[in-house]
């Protein structure tokens, strides 16, 4: 296994208090999407995508998806793609409320565009969970 140079995206965000330039943020997000498409194409889902699990190489500007400890196979015993996870894993503060609060019966339908917006806010170093905790 290769050792990748760089640091987690969240550490870079701390130094860029106004966030990353939009063009760079789009480039990094696109690289993560390509990594996820490749992972899904191989029959796995990551289940813990967050700024701490995206490594930024400052020399090249490339972003790499890391930490596959919660990854799960999408392939059932009959070798067909299932696309569902019946277990609940991930980093709670990085989860969208739709995911965190869904019941076992709701898990088939929990994913919405709101989950994408939740992740987008995290990429911009905005943590909605902190606001919810204050209420």
UniProtKB/TrEMBL annotation:
Keywords: ATP-binding, Kinase, Nucleotide-binding, Serine/threonine-protein kinase, Transferase. Signal peptide: none annotated. InterPro entries: Kinase-like_dom_sf, Prot_kinase_dom, Ser/Thr_kinase_AS. Residues 1-135 form the Protein kinase domain. GO terms for molecular function: ATP binding; protein serine/threonine kinase activity. The keyword Thylakoid does not apply. Pfam families: Pkinase. SUPFAM superfamilies: Protein kinase-like (PK-like) (SSF56112). This is Protein kinase domain-containing protein.
